From TrEMBL:
PANTHER family (UniProt xref): IODOTYROSINE DEIODINASE 1 (PTHR23026:SF90), NADPH NITROREDUCTASE (PTHR23026)
Entry-linked InterPro entries: Nitroreductase (IPR029479), Nitroreductase-like (IPR000415), Nitroreductase/BluB (IPR050627)
Name this protein carries in UniProt: Nitroreductase
Entry keyword Flavoprotein: yes
Keywords recorded for this protein, A-Z: Flavoprotein, FMN, Oxidoreductase
Residue ranges occupied by any Nitroreductase domain in the UniProt entry: 34-203
Signal peptide location: none
Length: 223
């Protein structure tokens, strides 16, 4: 049936698979993602910049409110800038862990992860990628464009980014130091952008360890 549109539309015919293959593909994808872990022990081995760019390209395919794509991914490879980010992050984290900013409930929730204010991995990894959320857009004349569902949109994009890194054999961590305003300053970002997640990107160290976590079974996450 022919449809009339006020804006450009194009045909979309996604690939369809036999039911048995659908389930097998879904199972392989799940098992692949289930092997992913957040890493805090990284190698300093170089990683091709192309791989980071490809992960950002994958993130940029995420759905977003009104297709406004309210995200910016800033890639930091310069050692001095990575050092500045580490130092600033640790100042905030020391306030959390040693300065009493973490509530007892928060400390209890984090205990099994054994996290500390030491963020030395921010200097070890070859790349830091900072995702910024655009609170609003800016037209060439300086006027603002309202953005919709910013947190939801940027969160989905970051999920795609993580999955793409894992697909390439790279590791990362969703680091969210609080507050994160120092990232906007160090990265020289405009006022309409706020730091969302800081991703260290690299290979896991040969002796890396991760908490022995068990994910919730399907019966607990499927309502």
């Amino acid at each position: 049936m022919a449809r009339e549109h006020s804006h450009p539309f194009i045909p979309y015919r996604p690939t369809r698979y036999p039911e048995a293959e659908m389930a097998e593909r879904g199972r392989r994808f799940y098992e692949h993602l289930d092997r992913r872990r957040s890493v805090r022990f990284f190698s300093d081995e170089p990683v091709p910049r192309e791989c980071v760019d490809l992960a950002v390209m994958a993130a940029n395919t995420a759905p977003s409110g009104a297709h406004q794509q309210p995200w910016k991914f800033i890639v930091v490879g310069d050692p001095e800038t990575r050092k500045r980010i580490r130092e600033a992050a640790e100042i905030e984290e020391r306030q959390n862990y040693e300065g009493g900013r973490l509530t007892p409930e928060w400390r209890e929730a984090l205990a099994h992860l054994e996290t500390t204010s030491d963020k030395s991995y921010l200097e070890t990894v070859p790349w830091l990628v900072v995702c910024f959320a655009e609170k609003y857009g800016v037209r060439p004349d300086g006027s603002r464009v309202k953005h919709y569902y910013v947190n939801e949109s940027v969160g989905i994009a970051c999920g795609f980014f993580i999955a793409a890194l894992h697909e390439m054999g790279l590791s990362t961590l969703t680091h969210t130091p609080n507050p994160m305003a120092f990232l906007a300053e160090i990265c020289g970002r405009p006022a309409n952008e706020r730091p969302y997640i800081l991703f260290p990107v690299g290979y896991a160290a040969p002796d890396a360890e991760v908490p022995d976590l068990v994910r919730k079974p399907l019966s607990e996450v499927l309502g």
